[in-house]
Write a structure and sequence with these properties.
CATH class of the largest domain: Alpha Beta
Number of helices: 6
Structural class: alpha/beta
Radius of gyration: 20 Å
Order of helices and strands: EEHEEEEHEHEHEEEHEH
Shape: elongated
Strand order of the largest sheet: 8-7-6-11-9-12-10
Largest sheet: 7 strands, parallel
CATH architecture of the largest domain: 3-Layer(aba) Sandwich
Oligomer: single chain
Number of domains: 2
Strand content: 25-35%
Length: 237
């Protein structure tokens, strides 16, 4: 952790808390030492340890930086096996994605959508990614039954570049794509890619088809590479 996040800044942390364990065992901090901490989706600052007893780490907090907005990028991604989804959540949060949208796909396993991960556990992986990046911002996460539901029910994406990664009929290499809108959305399929029916939906909704080259990548690899390239093309990293 390069920052420790809280929903509300407390006056003490339990020694048994994951964050308390990190302070004592990893950072090896003592009374008088300082550590970076902040509010989820809020300001960050410095925690100063005032005392440590058998059960608690007592500290004070001073704000130093107001909240920093996430990058105006949405990752739309097909449900994958839970272990892959955990990596995607962590890395997308670490890279500063503003929103992550999970959709059921024609080629994806329906059981992945019913995983216990989506009952709240997923938020811990967003926290891990943000804390790794020394950021307080967590992406919003949305869920849709399928791609058609997303197009029917999702919010307004006007002035947003809409890009879908696809090896079958790419119109451009993502590394050469030049965004023109104020934000971007990048769509990445499940482990077996998009179906022809889904490609028709993307065409109907004016998506640009792009590729990461000729290699077939794992979904989590494609998401990290795609986010990174697009953020670079947006001039943000």
């Amino acid at each position: 952790m390069n920052i420790i996040l809280f929903k509300d800044i407390p006056k003490k942390i339990s020694i048994k808390d994951k964050r308390g364990q990190h302070i004592i065992k990893i950072l090896k901090l003592k009374t008088g030492d300082e550590f970076n901490c902040g509010l989820v989706n809020g300001p960050s600052g410095i925690g100063s340890i005032t005392s440590i007893d058998q059960d608690w780490i007592h500290f004070t907090w001073e704000k130093t930086v107001d909240s920093v907005p996430l990058y105006p990028l949405t990752l739309l991604i097909g449900y994958t096996r839970p272990i892959s989804s955990k990596r995607i959540l962590r890395e997308a949060a670490s890279l500063g994605v503003e929103r992550i949208v999970f959709v059921g796909t024609d080629t994806g396993e329906k059981s992945y959508r019913d995983s216990n991960l989506w009952k709240g556990e997923y938020r811990g992986f967003l926290m891990d990614g943000a804390q790794q990046a020394a950021s307080t911002g967590l992406p919003e996460v949305e869920f849709y039954r399928d791609l058609q539901s997303f197009f029917r029910e999702s919010g307004n994406y006007s002035d947003t570049d809409m890009i879908v990664l696809d090896n079958i009929e790419p119109a451009v290499k993502l590394s050469k794509y030049t965004p023109v809108g104020s934000s971007c959305l990048i769509a990445i399929g499940s482990e077996r890619g998009w179906s022809e029916r889904e490609r028709k939906l993307f065409r109907r909704n004016d998506f640009t088809f792009a590729s990461l080259g000729s290699r077939v990548l794992r979904t989590e690899t494609a998401s990290t590479a795609g986010i990174t390239l697009l953020l670079a093309r947006m001039g943000l990293i």
